[in-house]
Amino acid sequence: MTGRTVLAADGEAPAADTPLLVGEGLHKSFGATPALCGAGLAVRAGELVAVMGPSGSGKSTLLHCLAGIVRPEAGTVRFRGVDLVARSDTERSALRRREFGFVFQFGQLVPELTCLQNVALPLRLGHVRRRAAERAAREWLDRLGVADVADARPGQTSGGQSQRVAVARALVNDPSVVFADEPTGALDSVNGELVMNLLSDAARASGAAVVIVTHDARVAAYADREIVVRDGRSRDLESVA
User: Fold this and answer.
1) How many domains does the structure of the chain reveal?
2) Is the overall model pTM greater than 0.85, yes or no?
3) DSSP per-residue string spanning 8-37
């Protein structure tokens, strides 16, 4: 996979220190329960940021707002200078297919599809022809050491294999940003370390930004920076060091 040139909203390549994705002043409640109370985060191309905090602190909600999955009630999210909050659901869905990759705690692979078909799915949704999509998917499965499960369904694989398939799916469309929500939470320490090495190495090689939600200090150790979320508010540890 080759690194991409990230373009700003005016079509010019941004400066190296310009954030690729920025969320500011984000507020979100579910019913009467506030999840975010002014949280924010900025991440640059090629940077890996860990979002840490206790359960219920709002870190997963922050990730979902940044990814355009959840619309905040207040605040802004800008990707390459474009305001995601103002975009329609259809526009945000198209952006996620083109630009974002996702890894979740339990993989969330489609059980009816083979592992190969799961990895090829983001490309197929982007109207890539089946043969080309599956060729790219096989390359990623081979790169992540799980080519032998290409024709198996997720239920026939181990937890470590399944999560590596999920990482391949997240990276197959050469995303600008990879969002990972507790990507090692369901794995033992050996498989967790393997998945983090694969995810971080592959993302850094492509120049993708990576946002990882975790409560595990061993996972956060892979990051360039740590953001702590507590009671819906965020704090950048680099800025207070």
Assistant:
1) 1
2) yes
3) -TTSSPPPTTS-SEEEEEEEEEETTEEEEE
